[in-house]
Amino acid sequence: MNDEQPIMGEAVGNALSQDFSAITLLRFAFPTIAMMVFSGLYTIVDTIFVSRFVNTNALSAINIVCPIINITVGLATMLATGGSAIVARKMGSGNEKEAKENFTLIVYAGIVTGLLISLIGLLFLEPIIRGLGASDLLFPYCRDYITILLIFAPANVMQCLYVNLFVTAGKPGLGLWLSVSAGLTNIILDYVFIVLMQMGISGAAIATSIGYMIPTIAGTYFFAKSKDSLSFVRPKFDIKVIGESCFNGASEMVGQFSTAITTFLFNITMMKLLGENGVAAVTIIIYSQFLLTTMYIGFSMGVAPVISYNYGSNNHTRLKRIFRICMGFILICSVLVFTVSMLGGPYISHIFAGQETNVYEITRYGFSIFSFSFLFCGFNIFASAMFTALSNGKISAIISFLRTFGFITAGLLILPVFLDITGIWLAVPLAELLTLFISMALILRYRKRYLYL
Fold first, then answer.
1. C-alpha span between 335 and 180 (Å, rounded)
2. Which of 75, 225, 228, 395 has its CA 20 to 30 A from that of 436?
3. In the chain, domain spans
C-alpha cells in the first residue's frame, strides 16, 4: 500500500488527515502558536500593571503563590494533552463514537479536578501561603490574589482543556480567537480595576478570572452544539481512559509541578540573598521566559494532534515528513528567540522597573545569563510533546522532569554556593543543555519503534 493514499479508517475531510507540507503544517499550527504567544503577552501585561501601578512587592507576591497556579494548570494540561492524544488516535483509526465518549469523560474529569482544587486551596489557604515562603510584608498581597484565583480554579482548568481540544477537533482558529478575546478582556479590566478603580492586586486577580470564563463558556457552548467530529455525548465511565490520559499527559503535569517546586526554590533562594527585590527580579524573568517560550509550546501543541493522528493511522511517510519540518522550525526559532532575549533583556527589565532601581539591575544581569537557555529549550519542549502525542507518557515525563526539575533543582542547590547570584541564573541554561543531550539520545533510540526517522 502506498502510504500517501488514504489509510483504512481515516476520516475523509478531517483536518488532521491532510497531506501536510511545511507551509500547510505551519498554517495549521499557526492559530495555536498565536494563541500561546498572545496568552504570554497578556500574562506579562498583567504583571506589568501590578509592578507599575501597585508595587514590586505585589509583583513578588504573585510569584510566591505561582506554584498553586502551576499545579492547577499542570493537572488541567495533563488531562488535556494526554486525553487529546487518545481522542486523536481513535479519530485516526475511524472510531468516532468512542472518541466522542472519551472526550466527554475527560471534560467531566476536568470539572471535578477544578472543584477539588478550589475546595482544598480555600480550606488550607493560610498554611499554604506561609509554606510557600511569604514574608509578613508579602502575605496580604498573596492572600488577596490567590483567594480569587482559587474560586475560579474550575474555569482555569476548563479553559486549559478546551484550548487543547479545539486543536484536536480541527478548530485551532476558534481557540485562537477565544484566547485573544480573553486576553484583551483581561488587559482592559486590568486598567479598569487596577488603574481607575485602585483595586490593587485583587483587581488583577478578578481581571484574570473573568478572562478564564470566556473560553470556558464559549467552549462549552461550542461542543454542546457541535455536529462535527467532536461533541458532547453521554459518556461511558472508563477508568482506563482517565488513567491513560493522566499517564500520557504526565510529562506536562510533571513539567508544571516541577516548575512549581523550582519557582519555590528560586523564591526562597532569592529571598535569602537579595530579599523582596530578588524575588521581584526572578518574577520578571520567569514571566518573560513564559512569553519567550510560547512559540515552542504553541507549535508543539499545534502539531501534536497531527502526529497522533498519523501514528494512529500508521502513515509513516507523513510522520517522517512532519518530524523533519518540526525540527527545522524549532532550530530557526531557537536562534531567533535567543537573539531577542539577549538583545532585549535590558528593555524588558525597564518595562517592569525603573533603571534607577535595584530590581532593574538584578533583572538586567539575570537576562545576560538566562538567555542561553532559549538555544536549547525548544528542542526539549518539542521532544516531550512528541512522545506524548505518540502515547509514550513515560519518555515524555522523563524529558519534562529533567528540564523542569531534576537538573534545575540540582543547579539551584549547588551553583549558588560557589557562584552566588550568577549560579541562580546559570541553573536553567545548564539544565536545558543537559536535557538536550538526553532528548536527542531518546529520539534516536525510539526511531525504529515509531518510524519518524
1. 27
2. 75
3. 18-450
